[in-house]
Design brief:
Layout (H helix, E strand, L loop, with lengths): L14 E7 L3 H14 L4 E5 L3 E2 L10 H9 L4 E2 L2 E3 L4 E3 L3 H8 L4 E5 L8 E2 L14 E7 L7 H4 E2 L1 H8 L9 H9 L12 E7 L6 H13 L7 E3 L5
Parallel strand pairs: 1-7, 1-9, 2-4, 2-7, 8-10, 9-11, 11-12
Antiparallel strand pairs: 3-6, 5-6
Helix pairs in contact: 6-7
Length: 233
Amino acid sequence: MAHCPFDFFTDGKKHNICLVGGGGKTMVMYELAAMWAACGRRVLVLTSTHILQPADGSFAADAAAVQKLWQQGRYAVIGTPEPATGKLTAPPQDLYEALKLQADVILCEADGSRHHPCKVPAEHEPVLLPDSDIVLAVAGMDALGRPLAQACQRPQLAAELLGCSLDSVIDAQMLAALLLSEQGARKNVGARAYYIVLNKCDLLKAAQQEEIRRLLVSAGMDGHRIWLRERGE
């Protein structure tokens, strides 16, 4: 199991974390949920948009099912099923309000990317939980070296933000800009703590990893809030 390098993972405090961006954020969300559950924490997973309903028994239809999963040392996923799509939308508000008082950690997928490694949010995105204290932005390193039109969701918005064409090939500087812009991954973060997961770093050489990390830090990002995550960690 991977090791999360972020300070909030071991501080013992209650956290409400929204994940945004692309490039594997659902995987990162469930990975964090499993790690916290293994530490004995009561973990609640949900979405404010859409996620696939898990088939591993972690979906809980009501509060009693959530409690049963927690007693088993597992995380619990809540939401409103959409039978036609096999997906979950946001859970009923009363269920969420009741459970958030009992959960040690809440993880919410607050953004969709349609499997693109990076994105720029539309006007209605992301859907951050009002009571969240942390935003975790995820970007896949497989975006690098690919045209914006191919690798970025809402590429026209990205092109406008970056001042380039849809055919422009994404480099480290462009990806760093998308992650740090308040029109990009940092949209509506406000006073929340902001962290970045650079996912699939095993696709990059060490020098490339260091370049994008350096770009983020030189633009003001705390280096301790950047996770260079490899697949299979």
